[in-house]
C-alpha cells in the first residue's frame, strides 16, 4: 500500500538476503521506522511485543522466523524448537498455528542442507498468498459497498464502521476489513470510515487512522462507545471488522469490543460483516465462546497511555487510580447469529457450518 506515494509491504526479505525487515508498529502514529530481524528470537520478540500484529501478519512473521532459525541451524531439533518458541508468543491468532504447522510439515521433508532456502521460499509464498487472498476479499467486499452506494444520493459516501486495525498493517498488504474500503476508494466509490479508537492499545486511532490518512481515505476517529449512538442515528451503513480466529460454525473472535458493536448493529438493523482469509478459520472448533483461548495481556496497557506532548516529546503516563486492579482481555467472541456474513477470498458466506464447509471443502477434509 501507499505511504506518501511509496509502496510498502509490512514484511519483506532484506536486501542482504539473510535477514527480514518489518515496519515497527509500536512506533505509530508518531514515527515510521523499519526494524531488521536477524534471528528467530528477533521474530518472536516482534510478535510478542506487537511490533507486528494482526493474525495474517503474525503468521507471515512466524514463517520468516522459522527461516531465520534454519539459517542458524537447519537440523530437525532446531526446526521443532523454533516452531515451539514461536507458537508461545501469542495464543489467540490461529494464523500463527497455521503458518507454523505448514512450515514444520513442509520443511521436515526437506534435506537439512537445502532447508534454509526452502524455508525462505515458503515464507515468501505465504506472503504472496496473503496478498492474493486479501485482494480477493477486497473485490467481494467492494460489491457490498457498491450496492449500498447505489442507494445513496450522488456524492454521498457509504459510512463504514470498523474496529481495531484489520488494515494493510495487520496483513502483508491490502488488509482484510480495509481491502474493500481501499478498492472502493480507488474505484471512485465515495466512502467514509468511522474508526474506533480501540482501547487499550488504540490500534484504530494509531494504526487504522494513520494508514487511511496516508492513502487519502476520508475517515473520522471516534471513541469505542460511540458506535451504537451513530447506528441509532443512521450514520453507519455497514460494519466491517477483521478476525483473529473464526470457528467452523461462524463464531468470530476479534479485538475486545467487537461483540458490543455486533449487538448494536443487530439492534439497529445495520449489516455486520467480518472479512477474513481462510487460514483464519479454525475447523477444529465449533463453539467460539467456550473453545477459543482469550489472551490476557499486561495491565500496564490499560493503566498507562503513550502520547506526544505539545513540545513534541513522546511520554507514557498513568491514567488509572493508584491501587486499582486492572484486567485486560485482548479479544472477545461474536456469536455467528450476530454476523450478517463472512467476506472471504471465495465470496461472501453465511456464518454457519454448511456455508463455510461448502466454500472450503479441502480444509474440512484436512481437519477431520
UniProtKB/TrEMBL annotation:
It comes from the Bacteria. Its EC number is 5.3.1.23. The record marks 164 as: Transition state stabilizer. Keywords: Amino-acid biosynthesis, Isomerase, Methionine biosynthesis. Pfam families: IF-2B. It catalyses: 5-(methylsulfanyl)-alpha-D-ribose 1-phosphate = 5-(methylsulfanyl)-D-ribulose 1-phosphate. It is an enzyme of class 5 (isomerase). Substrate binds at residues 53-55, 90, 203, 254-255. GO terms for molecular function: S-methyl-5-thioribose-1-phosphate isomerase activity. Pathway: Amino-acid biosynthesis; L-methionine biosynthesis via salvage pathway; L-methionine from S-methyl-5-thio-alpha-D-ribose 1-phosphate: step 1/6. SUPFAM superfamilies: NagB/RpiA/CoA transferase-like (SSF100950). The keyword Amino-acid biosynthesis applies. The active site is at residue 244. Belongs to the EIF-2B alpha/beta/delta subunits family. MtnA subfamily. Catalyzes the interconversion of methylthioribose-1-phosphate (MTR-1-P) into methylthioribulose-1-phosphate (MTRu-1-P). HAMAP family: Salvage_MtnA. This is Methylthioribose-1-phosphate isomerase. It comes from Roseibium porphyridii.
Amino acid at each position: 500500500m501507499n505511504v506518501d506515494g511509496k509502496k510498502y509491504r509490512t514484511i519483506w526479505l532484506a536486501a542482504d538476503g539473510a535477514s527480514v525487515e518489518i515496519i515497527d508498529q509500536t512506533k505509530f502514529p508518531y514515527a515510521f521506522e523499519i526494524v531488521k530481524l536477524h534471528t528467530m528470537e528477533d521474530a518472536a520478540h516482534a510478535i510478542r511485543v506487537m511490533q507486528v500484529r494482526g493474525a495474517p501478519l503474525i503468521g507471515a512473521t512466524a514463517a520468516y522466523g522459522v527461516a531465520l532459525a534454519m539459517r542458524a541451524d537447519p537440523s530437525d531439533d532446531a526446526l521443532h524448537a523454533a516452531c515451539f518458541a514461536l507458537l508461545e508468543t501469542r495464543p489467540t491468532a490461529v494464523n500463527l498455528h497455521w503458518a507454523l504447522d505448514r512450515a514444520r510439515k513442509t520443511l521436515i521433508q526437506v534435506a537439512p542442507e537445502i532447508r534454509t532456502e526452502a524455508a525462505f521460499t515458503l515464507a515468501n509464498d505465504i506472503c504472496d498468498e496473503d496478498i492474493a487472498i486479501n485482494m480477493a476479499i477486497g473485490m467481494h467486499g467492494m460489491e457490498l459497498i457498491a450496492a449500498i452506494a447505489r442507494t445513496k444520493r450522488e456524492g454521498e459516501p457509504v459510512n463504514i464502521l470498523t474496529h481495531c486495525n484489520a488494515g494493510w498493517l495487520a496483513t502483508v498488504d491490502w488488509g482484510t476489513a480495509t481491502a474493500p474500503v481501499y478498492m472502493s476508494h480507488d474505484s471512485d466509490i465515495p466512502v467514509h470510515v468511522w474508526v474506533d479508537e480501540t482501547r487499550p492499545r488504540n490500534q484504530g486511532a494509531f494504526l487504522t487512522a494513520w494508514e487511511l490518512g496516508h492513502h487519502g481515505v476520508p475517515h473520522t476517529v471516534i471513541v469505542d462507545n460511540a458506535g451504537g449512538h451513530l447506528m441509532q442515528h443512521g450514520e453507519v451503513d455497514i460494519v466491517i471488522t477483521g478476525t483473529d480466529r473464526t470457528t467452523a460454525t461462524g463464531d468470530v473472535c476479534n479485538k475486545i469490543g467487537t461483540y458490543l458493536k455486533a449487538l448494536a448493529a443487530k439492534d439497529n438493523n445495520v449489516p455486520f460483516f467480518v472479512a477474513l482469509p481462510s487460514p483464519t478459520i479454525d475447523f477444529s472448533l465449533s463453539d467460539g465462546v467456550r473453545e477459543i483461548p482469550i489472551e490476557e495481556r499486561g495491565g500496564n496497557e490499560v493503566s498507562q497511555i503513550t502520547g506526544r506532548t505539545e513540545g513534541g516529546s513522546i511520554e507514557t503516563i498513568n491514567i488509572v487510580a493508584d491501587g486499582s486492579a486492572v484486567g485486560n482481555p485482548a479479544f472477545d467472541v461474536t456469536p455467528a447469529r450476530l454476523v450478517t456474513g463472512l467476506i472471504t477470498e471465495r465470496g461472501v458466506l453465511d456464518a454457519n457450518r454448511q456455508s463455510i464447509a461448502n466454500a472450503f471443502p479441502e480444509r474440512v477434509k484436512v481437519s477431520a
